[in-house]
């Protein structure tokens, strides 16, 4: 907070704090409180809302714990969301390191523009695009067959493979930007010092860069996991 005051002054710092607090309250806290409160009520038609059946109870939670199907869906959702988060990290970390420490600054605007362009397209259109790409006779199978990597077409959309690919593509940017901000704040002299002391590449990442990037990793993992776990549109 002191750094913000010193950099932007009292007025701008207050505006930032108020806008951030408003965003967290209106878009995060209140909606979750609303959902939590409605979880104790039955799902009723609009005409019956406020009627004698619209009462608080634990029926929804008891139904969840009594049904093995609901429990199975819940745990598989957690497992696949964690897997999507891990894949997003594997993809985003090298890219974030390249953008922050390797790439020439003159190329950064162009690279970021290329990364941002897909986000300007509707999520529905992007999902349909992947549906075409992953089709049995789509361009992905055609490319893999042409290169001789596979002998028979793969049904990518069958099971959870298509869902995982779609979720990774949709949410990988939410992992990239927190990682980029965290790695960019690392002093390059620390990396050079580790190299001068004989540390290998993987050891520099493991002992210097990743520990420094923990806040960005945590932020990206939380965002990707929560978005993947709560996503309905992409799997549908």
Could you name the ranges where pLDDT drops below 50 across 5 or more consecutive residues? none
Number of helices: 10
Morphology: globular
Compute the number of strand runs. Answer: 0
Order of H and E elements:
HHHHHHHHHH
* Average of per-residue pLDDT values: 84
- Strand portion: under 5%
Distance between the termini: 43 Å
Class based on secondary structure composition and strand pairing: mainly alpha
Q: Return Rg in Å.
A: 23 Å
Let me know the largest β-sheet: none
The oligomerization state is single chain
The portion of residues assigned to helices is over 70%
Give a short summary of the structure.
With about 240 residues, the protein is mainly alpha-helical. The chain has helices spanning about 1-40, 60-65, 70-100, 110-120, 125-135, 140-145, 160-185, 190-195, 200-210, 215-230.
Description:
The protein contains ten helices and no strands. The mean pLDDT is about 85. It is about 75% helix and about 0% strand. The chain has about 240 residues and is an all-alpha fold. It is globular and about 75 Å long.
List keywords for this structure.
10 helices; 236 residues; 74% helix; mainly alpha; globular
